[in-house]
From TrEMBL:
<feature type="domain" description="MacB-like periplasmic core">
    <location>
        <begin position="18"/>
        <end position="248"/>
    </location>
</feature>
<feature type="domain" description="ABC3 transporter permease C-terminal">
    <location>
        <begin position="287"/>
        <end position="408"/>
    </location>
</feature>
<dbReference type="InterPro" id="IPR003838">
    <property type="entry name" value="ABC3_permease_C"/>
</dbReference>
<feature type="transmembrane region" description="Helical">
    <location>
        <begin position="385"/>
        <end position="404"/>
    </location>
</feature>
<keyword id="KW-1003">Cell membrane</keyword>
<dbReference type="GO" id="GO:0098797">
    <property type="term" value="C:plasma membrane protein complex"/>
</dbReference>
<keyword id="KW-1133">Transmembrane helix</keyword>
<comment type="similarity">
    <text>Belongs to the ABC-4 integral membrane protein family. LolC/E subfamily.</text>
</comment>
<protein>
    <submittedName>
        <fullName>ABC transporter permease</fullName>
    </submittedName>
</protein>
<feature type="transmembrane region" description="Helical">
    <location>
        <begin position="280"/>
        <end position="301"/>
    </location>
</feature>
<feature type="transmembrane region" description="Helical">
    <location>
        <begin position="337"/>
        <end position="358"/>
    </location>
</feature>
<dbReference type="Pfam" id="PF02687">
    <property type="entry name" value="FtsX"/>
</dbReference>
<dbReference type="Pfam" id="PF12704">
    <property type="entry name" value="MacB_PCD"/>
</dbReference>
<dbReference type="InterPro" id="IPR025857">
    <property type="entry name" value="MacB_PCD"/>
</dbReference>
<feature type="transmembrane region" description="Helical">
    <location>
        <begin position="20"/>
        <end position="38"/>
    </location>
</feature>
<dbReference type="GO" id="GO:0044874">
    <property type="term" value="P:lipoprotein localization to outer membrane"/>
</dbReference>
<dbReference type="InterPro" id="IPR051447">
    <property type="entry name" value="Lipoprotein-release_system"/>
</dbReference>
Length: 419
């Protein structure tokens, strides 16, 4: 209790230096916490966009080798109709699987009668697309008009209709209800063409795909590709994203035991953009964290060093009346911990205040490779905040150890005679 009182008095003795160090810790803590909250929001948004907006689902099942050899020999690596139904029956008793959706991808030429351009299409059941996209409806960080542009809708009553990315529709001047022709290569390598109508347009959110992507019913894709009930992959939607990795392992073993050794890939495996952004922000966070931590350590060490020099005679007096060397170290370590604790608590208040201001300011920006603005929002990343809090307390205490150790080993007579 005496050590605590002496530590408080020591901090208040030179209030100006203590205040500067306190603010350094507080703003450093707030900077780390705010950036952690921003990256957390970005990760959550990219994950939701990949799973629900990009229609990746949580897991994708396909025959092994489909990614490498499937383009050269598609017929060999397609899932047949009976195989699709068998997989559905095997997965039907899994409690956390909300959806099993067969998919079929194809590419070719889209023509408006005067000009043509390449397209990449994905065939999916209309109901399945609606279920996958339902996860976007809970997004609170996207304006309703922007969200409406992302949503796609296929009409099960009109399988000849296709949804075109807005850039592709604009490139060929194809408004809603316009007629177009699609030319593709079938599974056997022959040319096949069908007339289609434009049911609507959507924004992919990515400049690289907004002038190429088309969506169509699975029935239309199978007709164009000349396959009967087949698909190149199955998309699985779970009720909890946290189960993704566990279910990838579990389902692989279950399907293999049932005679369907399908390869299973998670949404993270398929979303290169998410992985690249995640890696980049983790590196930036580590860089910022190391800089702020270095500044805090130097600030605390400098403050404690100056305090030790100014209080040398006081230390000598305390040693003369019986305080052990370990007591001197404990005294300055307590001062440093109090300073770090107060600074972190103040930094937490700054974080909450700045976060509220940013989230209410309605700030938007257009990310790289994006076609529409997204709001700038900051979350409270509690695990990283707690980690930063503990680490700053630990580092703050260690930063006071060296100057306190030097003061503790100094002879008592030298300390009492210090000017």
């Amino acid at each position: 209790m005496n050590t605590f009182k002496l530590a408080v008095r020591g901090l208040t003795r030179n209030s100006r230096r203590s205040l500067v160090t306190l603010l350094t810790i507080a703003f450093g803590f707030a900077a780390i916490s705010l950036f952690a909250g921003y990256t957390h929001n970005v990760y959550e948004g990219l994950a939701r966009q990949a799973i629900h907006g990009g229609l990746l689902g949580h897991l994708t099942l396909h025959k092994r080798g489909m990614d490498t050899e499937g383009k050269l020999d598609p017929e060999r690596y397609l899932l047949t109709g009976p195989e699709v139904e068998k997989a559905r029956r095997i997965l039907a008793d899994e409690p956390h699987i909300q959806l099993v959706a067969p998919r079929l991808g194809l590419s070719g030429l889209l023509s408006n009668g005067k000009s043509s351009t390449i397209f990449i299409a994905d065939g999916i059941e209309p109901r399945a697309m609606e279920v996958i996209q339902a996860g976007l409806l809970s997004l609170s960080n996207i304006r309703p008009e922007v969200l409406a542009a992302y949503l796609k809708k296929l009409n099960p009553q009109r399988p000849e209709e296709v949804e075109l990315a807005s850039g592709l529709a604009e490139l060929l001047h194809l408004p809603r209800n316009a007629q177009a022709a699609m030319l593709v290569s079938t599974v056997s390598g022959q040319a096949n063409a069908l007339d289609v109508s434009v049911g609507g347009t959507f924004d992919t959110g990515n400049a690289g795909t907004n002038d190429k992507l088309a969506l169509m019913t699975l029935q239309l894709a199978q007709t164009l590709y000349d396959v009967d009930g087949g698909a190149d992959r199955l998309t699985l939607l779970l009720d909890d994203v946290a189960l993704t990795d566990d279910y990838a392992v579990r389902l692989a073993e279950k399907l293999k035991a049932a005679g369907l050794p399908l390869e299973i890939r998670t949404w993270k495996d398929l979303s290169d953009f998410y992985k690249q952004v995640h890696t980049m922000f983790n590196m930036i966070f580590g860089f910022i964290f190391s800089i702020v931590l270095t500044v805090v350590v130097m600030s605390v060490a400098n403050s404690m060093g100056m305090t030790v020099i100014e209080r040398t005679r006081e230390i000598g007096t305390l040693r003369a009346i019986g305080l052990r060397r370990s007591g001197v170290v404990r005294l300055f370590a307590t001062e440093s911990l109090l300073l770090s604790l107060t600074g972190c608590l103040l930094g937490l208040l700054i974080t909450v205040a700045v976060r509220a201001g940013v989230n209410l300011a309605d700030i938007s920006y257009v990310p790289p490779s994006s076609t529409s603005p997204v709001p700038l929002l900051v979350d409270l990343d509690l695990p990283r905040i707690a980690f930063t809090f503990v680490l700053m307390l630990l580092v703050g205490g260690l930063a006071a150890w060296l100057p306190a150790r030097r003061a503790a080993v100094r002879p008592v007579m030298d300390a009492l005679g210090h000017n």
